[in-house]
Amino acid sequence: MNLDTLLLTVISTSLVYSAPLIFTALGGTFSERSGIVNVGLEGIMVMGAFGSVVFNLKMGDTFGALTPWLGLLVGGAIGVLFSCIHAVATINWRTDHIISGTVLNLMAPALAVYLTKLIFDGRGQTDILQHPLATVTIPGLSAIPFIGHIFFTNTSLLAYLGIGVAILSWWVLKYTKFGLRLRSVGEHPEAADSLGISVYKYRYIGVLLSGFLGGIGGAVMAQSITLNFSATTIVGQGFMSLAALVFGKWHPIGAMGAAIFFGFAQSLAIIGKYVPVIASVPDVWFTIAPYLITIIVVVLFIGRSKAPAADGTTFIKSH
Amino acid sequence: MAEPAIKVTGLTKRFGDFVANDHLDLTINFGEVHALLGENGAGKTTMMNMLSGILIPTSGTIEVRGKAAHLQSAKDATALGIGMVHQHFMLVENFSVIDNIILGAEPTKGGKIDRTKAKKDIMALSEKYRLRIEPDAKIEDISVGMQQRVEILKVLYRQADILIFDEPTAVLTPQEIDELLDIMRQLASEGKAVVLISHKLAELRQVADVITIIRRGKKIDTVPASTSTAELADKMVGRHVNFARERVPMPEGAPVLEVKDLVVEDKDKVAHVRDLSLMLRGGEILGLAGIDGNGQSEFVKAITGLLPVTAGQILIGGKDLTHATPREVTEASVGHIPEDRQRFGLVMPMDLVENMSLQTYYKPPLSHHGVMDTKVMVQTTEQLLDDYDVRHANLQQKAGDLSGGNQQKLIIARELSRDPQLVIAMNPTRGLDVGAIEFIHAQLLKARAAGHAVLLISFELDEVRQLSDRIAVIHNGHIVGESATSDLTEQQIGLMMTGETLEHAKEATHEN
Amino acid sequence: MRIKNTWISGLGIPLTSIFLGLLVGAIIMLLSGFDPISNYVNMFTGALGSANAIGEVLRSATPLMLTALGFAVANYAGFFNIGLAGQALVGWLASVAFANAFPGLPSILIIPGALIVAALAGAFWSGLAGYFRAYFGANEVITTIMLNYIALYATNAIVKAYMTVGDGDYSKMIPKAARLRTPFLEQLTQNSTFHYGIILSVLAVFFIAWLLKKTTLGFEIRAVGMSEDASRYAGMSPKRTIMASMLISGALCGLGGAMEGLGNFQNIIVNTALPSIGFDGMSVALLAAGSPIGILFAALLFGTLSIGGLNISIAATTPPEITSIVVASIIFFVGANYIIRYWFAKLRKPAKPTASTPVPPAATDTKEVHS
Predict the structure, then answer these.
(1) What letter would DSSP give residue A92?
(2) Contact, C118 vs C250, CB < 8 A?
(3) How, if at all, do strands B33-37 and B193-198 pair?
(4) Which one of A117, A236, A315 has the shortest CB-CB distance to C149?
(5) By CA distance, what is A286's nearest residue in C?
(6) pLDDT (tens digit, 9 = 90+) per residue, A151-166?
(7) pLDDT tens digits for C67-110?
(8) A279 with A33: CB under 8 angstroms?
(9) C202 falls in which pLDDT band (50, 70, 90)?
(10) Residue A269 lies inside a defined structural domain of this protein
(11) Residue-wise over A228-243: b if at least 16 C-beta within 10 A, else e?
């Protein structure tokens, strides 16, 4: 394998594996910037993956090539519904954010597999998708010498879409009224309340956005990587997204960058087989590499990075 | 020229069984500064929170400009021109000054916040009222005084003409207080209504037109500002109050605390305490005066082992404790009444027995070989709660369920009952009522009379002057001057709090 | 981050949560066309209807008590240990490896030896996360989850490489002397997998209850968990205390894994997923609000649900995942105990519109209370 092909493989697999993490980490960013810790991203991804796969399998004949893209929206919608549990629990019912998020993580695989068995005659694992999100070669850009070949041939359009959403998220948080208010309820809800800003409203929006983007993240994972749904479709990607957003210092661009890094870590297992020097390393090292790298990053780089001041607190409006 | 801005009738607020405001009647006029005087917990803030829409009254009516108002949220109050400068600043620490001022009332252009226009408008207001600010700085990087100016601009930016100031002077130097009172007068002379909530008699008399006194949720009286300080104090507390503190003469004791060239840096290498030197003898109270955020916190934490010392030396009773752990400091006979009783002094969800045992649980007689003797713990706690008059329902009560005054009494009981040679007390009476303040002051004077050394760090200049034999003033982590209490005027201390040396402060005040 | 102790104020919250959790399960079954009543009846008869079933329930509760205690001890120190499963797994591996390494030893040596090795392995695995948190401030929710996956793939690789028999996906059985299941117990419970490990679990319940309540270490663990600042002020070392609680936590989980290795399976298999005793143990601890005695009962309940749950899909076509849905719902309501209290208060005094937890007077004057 020559350098050119090697780089192409590394970059395109990294991007494919990054895409789910980028969306999910951005979702988490909105939730946490509004003050609601969301460790339930993993569960949200499971539900999004499940929703998109069911839609893809059942409606594939109707929508043809459009199916996986609509599947993303279905996954996002299911994620929104599922994240309502977290929103009600943490915002209205004063549940500890970690416990509520953990409930999402406990509930999602059980519920999704239960429903899978109902829908697919008792089987806990679906068939392989007929309409997956394929890698694409971007016309025009791929014609750029060298770089075009490496970055824009057989690549994940979704990763680029994710990067676009990250930039948009950054702009919204920084420059719009909505963004300023969302951040204010995550930093100092009492101050926001004293200025007539509805803390509850903005926290709901934050959590539901995490449901939407996390659901999309799960849908991307299922429709572009695992290509079916089972209990093992999402194995820690939600937590990696969480790590990415912390590593990215709760900043959309930072979260995106960290997600790409973790995507690279996940792609190691595939790339490893092609690189002569490390091909002889036992498989298990590649399997655990993303988890190990996440720990190393969390320990060395993000131990003390600063969360929004009111992240994880319950706001109680007095009357 | 006086026209009613706000008229409240029979205003009542209950929290469960607790009546915070009990049928209050009050009229606030345009063009006047109306002071609301009452002790901590008397219900002043509750009332103002109802006027600013944060709390909803249980019963009673509020009229604004002659029209009945039903305030359901802060938005409603803003729409009626009511604005409140909160006691605990309602500022987002990592937002810029501009963003804090416009939050909730952002000017936009094409979907984007128009920060250029905002800045222009804000700077115009800033100049008009001489409220100096740095518009692009973050709140966490500006002084407390400037933060307060930001709070005032927030209200003015919303074009409020009824302004409520809740205990605005608590964190200011005497000079800053004078400036603030001038601004209030200016606002009133423009025809705005100004409400000032405070328990500081002198400043109320200086600025107000009328004073309304509130006690335990009830209105006691509305009196002209010319009423004597003594009469106001008696009405506020409901009995005769003696603000003088008796200090028995004590012989000069041996040095107990010696701090030499102390430097404390945080992990970003920013020095909060620089070359600070102090000496404190047995039988005296040394008051450390200064504005919040000038290194007091870090200084106390360094002495008590809670922060690492970068350079310098700390001797307690002649023993080098520069790099000691908190427990080693405690064992060297030091009692520490921390600045934030709820965060440091108590484990709020733990019961009274556990909190009373917090400093001694690990050694006999409370425990043997790692196993605690519950019986002894209970007996000791009962005795101390009794001795220090901590009002409580039962021993299983959580510390967090005690009132502020009783929480502080519990801490004092725990720290002073060990008979420590050095007592370190930081803001020991913050937020307490006059009864609790008297009790705590008496305990500190008792420790002094027993020959112990007391280091009193307080943002309340009156408290420092009442209790201390000597006063040292801290500014920017450094002691700018130190002298016997009787040698210093309030003005001189005030100047030193802004960084002037003792000599300059004395010269400056003599010239006046 | 902390579980509030609701058992002290009575059984109201947990019992209501269990009821509501079963109700959610019933609604889901109804919506998907199953008969909840017959399913629940099947579940309870499946769990309690025979000596064999009861034996299975007790066996299933045995490791749960240990992992739940592990979660609780860490949680008292303010540490949300989601790594129970991984810690149990390394304990499981260690116990089997030890037993198979010393096949000649008598029971009196091989069983304690295997238990100690399992506890040490679990403690090492949790100690990593404790160390990362105490000395680097690394968020334990992330590190313990990642350590779970590493434990899963690493133990599988070790089992495959060094311990499997032939082409199988499991190790050889441990020697008889190391087994906690005995012919006597099998006879007693109609050949169930019930084993002597339950003695260890019950002893652990009382030991941890004593440790937390009566020892200075327990006092420090609780104080650090409730207020790191105040405990530092009081001369405790939060770092050392967090480490101590995490080591105890992991040791308990390691023992929980040993219950699978020496008792339930008597060997180790290549696992497709993390062992369920991890997340179930966390659920048990949350339901018990951290009370060790509460854990004893909550573990029995979870044993009942999981063993009975198997019977649901045998007797009907309802997928067995319904029990996990019920469990997650129960934990949801335990977490949302504020709203349950609020509803109770409304039921008691329907006239009064105020919340059940009135704002304490001290807090009314300044600002909103937050927790």
Answers:
(1) I
(2) no
(3) parallel
(4) A236
(5) C153
(6) 777 778 899 999 999 9
(7) 999 999 999 999 989 999 999 999 999 999 999 999 999 999 99
(8) no
(9) very high
(10) yes
(11) bbbbebbbbbbbbbbb
CB contact under 8 A, B336 and C359: no
Domain C7-343 has CATH 1.10.760: no
Tens-digit pLDDT profile for residues B209-239: 999 999 989 999 999 988 888 888 889 888 8
pTM given for the model:
0.89
The answer to whether C32 contacts chain A (CB < 8 Å) is yes
ipTM above 0.85, yes or no: yes
For residue A136, the domain's CATH number is: 1.10.3470
DSSP collapsed to 3 states, C1-42: CCCCCCCCCCCHHHHHHHHHHHHHHHHHHHHCCCCHHHHHHH
Query: A residues 171-190 near B, CB within 8 Å?
Result: 175-177, 180-181, 183-184, 187-188, 190
Q: Say if A310 falls within a structural domain.
A: no
Domain ranges of chain C: 7-343
Three-state secondary structure readout of B198-250: ECCHHHHHHHCCEEEEEECCEEEEEEECCCCHHHHHHHHHCCCCCCCCCCCCC
> Which pLDDT band holds residue B1 (cuts at 50, 70, 90)?
very low
Which residue blocks in A120-156 are alpha helix, DSSP H?
147-152
Structural domains present in chain B:
4-237 (3.40.50.300), 255-511 (3.40.50.300)
CB C164 within 8 A of CB C171: yes
What domain range is A178 assigned to? Answer: 3-301
How many independent structural domains does chain A possess? 1
C contact residues 306-335, partner A, Cβ 8 Å cutoff: 317, 319, 321-322, 324-325, 327-329, 331-332, 334-335
CA distances for B35 relative to A230, B207, B228, angstroms: 69, 8, 15
C143 Cβ contact list (under 8 Å, min separation 6)? A295, A298, A299, C83, C128, C129, C132, C133
Q: Assess A249–B contact: CB distance below 8 Å, yes or no.
A: no
Lowest mean pLDDT among A280-294, B317-331, B408-422: A280-294
Angle at C292 between CA C312 and CA B362, to 5 degrees: 165
Which member of C153, C286, C338 has the closest CB to residue A287?
A: C153
C272 touches A at CB < 8 Å: yes
Residue B483, both tokens: 């002298």
